């Protein structure tokens, strides 16, 4: 990552920027109002700017001590595989190392094919000897 080109900022980007990134990577649409509400509950967030455009993001939700969930780790297509995701995750893991108690659970759901990326940060693939498959549900509010 060319450090002179990209600017990493600790804080929340505008909700519309995360909505846009989610759509670019095919994660589906979340309305801006819902995203704003979700972002307000974040423990920590970081985003990456390139010429005033948000091209990367990640955030943590949880209880701030025993449970942390990493969410919205996104790098805009065309800027992937340039070290941006690694730089963002280093900030995320640094926050967790300063705030998590011993034995805290840190979780995430890796996008298909991205599991090896997260292993570099100490995450385990599931299922394994001790844990079953991770599970997920997308809520459909009717």
TrEMBL record:
Coiled coil: none annotated. PROSITE patterns: GNAT. Gene3D superfamilies: 3.40.630.30. Keywords: Transferase. It comes from the Bacteria. GO terms for molecular function: acyltransferase activity, transferring groups other than amino-acyl groups. Residues 6-142 form the N-acetyltransferase domain. Signal peptide: none annotated. The keyword Translocase does not apply. This is Acetyltransferase (GNAT) family protein. It comes from Methylomusa anaerophila.
């Amino acid at each position: 990552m060319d450090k002179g080109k990209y600017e990493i900022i600790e804080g929340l980007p505008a909700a519309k920027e995360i909505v846009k990134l989610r759509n670019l990577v095919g994660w589906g649409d979340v309305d801006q109002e819902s995203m704003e509400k979700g972002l307000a509950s974040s423990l920590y967030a970081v985003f990456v700017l390139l010429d005033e455009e948000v091209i990367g993001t990640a955030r943590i939700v949880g209880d701030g001590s025993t449970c942390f969930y990493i969410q919205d780790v996104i790098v805009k297509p065309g800027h992937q595989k340039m070290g941006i995701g690694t730089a963002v995750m280093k900030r995320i893991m640094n926050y967790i190392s300063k705030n998590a108690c011993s034995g805290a659970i840190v979780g995430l759901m890796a996008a298909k094919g991205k599991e090896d990326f997260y292993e570099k940060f100490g995450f385990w693939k599931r299922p394994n000897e001790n844990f079953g498959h991770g599970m997920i549900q997308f809520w459909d509010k009717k």
